[in-house]
Write a structure and sequence with these properties.
The structure is a single chain. 76% of the residues lie in helices and 0% in strands. By secondary structure, the chain is an all-alpha fold. It has helices at 2-23, 34-56, 59-79, 87-107, 120-123, 128-143, 147-158, 163-170, 174-196. The protein has two domains: 2-107, no CATH class; 128-192, Arc Repressor Mutant, subunit A (Orthogonal Bundle). Helix 1 packs across helix 2 (34-56), helix 2 packs across helix 4 (87-107) and helix 8 crosses helix 9. The longest helix has 23 residues, at 34-56.
């Protein structure tokens, strides 16, 4: 993956270098150079790839979006007079925009639908109060956990934060977050087994 990124960056640098030198001026805060781009790619590709992979759940799409993120980031840095203080956040913001664009593209694809294929009686919820009751049971079970376990369940499972992000938010170590989550899930299983009896 790193090799692909660096090869991609090499091609991009040579094209951009040629274009800028041909015009006789450099635009932007950072003069394009291979060492700078390699450093950004090597320092941030693993975490960025994991972030994207977690969001899209598809290895090929994650690789493509990671490469596209680096290209967009590097081209923006070359074309604009800005200084980035936190490259990880900068790259994740670009990645999220690209992911949202992909989601929009896929959601706009039309699915052929025939009205005779729809059976409303199959789609309707048998008893809405049942789903409300299940939701209330889940909330009651979570409320029986410790405060730390509740926070971890909320951040990790409900909101979808990574272990690293949850650890930063709660100001705890990653291992502590994993243990809290494991114990919380185990306790929830015990609570639900107790409720079902």
């Amino acid at each position: 993956m790193v090799c692909n990124l660096l090869q991609l960056c090499d091609v991009y640098i040579s094209i951009k270098d040629y274009n800028y030198r041909k015009e006789g001026e450099w635009m932007g805060y950072i003069e394009p150079n291979k060492e700078f781009i390699e450093k950004i790619c090597i320092d941030h590709w693993k975490e960025l790839y994991r972030f994207i992979s977690y969001k899209v759940h598809n290895r090929e799409a994650a690789e493509d979006l990671t490469q596209e993120t680096f290209i967009k980031a590097i081209s923006y840095l070359k074309d604009h007079d800005i200084e980035i203080l936190e490259y990880n956040s900068y790259l994740k913001a670009i990645a999220m925009n690209l992911i949202r664009d992909e989601w929009r593209k896929t959601s706009k694809k039309k699915i052929p639908l025939k009205l005779e294929d729809i059976h409303p009686e199959e789609l309707s919820v048998d008893d809405f109060s049942q789903s409300v009751g299940e939701h209330a049971e889940i909330e009651a079970a979570i409320s029986r956990l410790s405060k730390d376990q509740q926070m971890v369940i909320n951040l990790r499972i409900v909101k979808g934060y990574s272990v690293v992000e949850t650890a930063k938010i709660l100001n705890k170590k990653k291992g502590t977050i994993r243990v809290l989550q494991f114990r919380a899930v185990k306790e929830l299983a015990r609570i639900f087994e107790e409720i079902s009896k």
